[in-house]
Amino acid sequence: MNKYELVVVLDANLEDDARSAAMEKVNGYIERAGGKVEKTDEWGKKQLAYEIKKATEAYYTFITFEAPETAPAAIESDIRIMEQVLRFLIVKQEA
Predict the structure, then answer these.
(1) Which fold does the domain 2-92 belong to in CATH?
(2) Less crowded by CB within 10 Å, the N or C end of the chain?
């Protein structure tokens, strides 16, 4: 199992309940791909460097997880279709 870092950038206009539901969905995608979430760190609302989908602010969440090598591709395909997600990035941690 490899360690990965995932940053999810959500629409800042989401209500707290909708944001929590979106992050639960992301955690579910990680677990469904055979991964295990180690740590979730909410960075909060930040100003974007450039406009994305007419938004100037977004809500950032940083997740550290362990998963098999095939998991990032499966997780990316699931997160890609979520409307609340403006951007995301999965990176493998160096050992």
Answers:
(1) Alpha-Beta Plaits (3.30.70)
(2) C
Which pLDDT belongs to residue 67? 95
According to the model, what pLDDT value does residue 79 have?
95
Question: Which residues fall within 8 angstroms of residue 42, CB to CB, at 6 or more apart?
Answer: 59, 60, 61, 62
Q: What is the mean pLDDT of the chain?
A: 94
C-beta separation of 52 from 38 below 8 A: no
The contacts of residue 6 (CB under 8 Å, 6+ apart) are: 26, 30, 62, 63, 64, 65, 75, 88, 89, 90, 91
Mind giving me the DSSP string for 23-83?
Answer: HHHHHHHHHHTT-EEEEEEEEEEEEEEEEETTEEEEEEEEEEEEE-TTHHHHHHHHHHT-T
Question: How confident is the model over 36-42, as a mean pLDDT?
Answer: 96
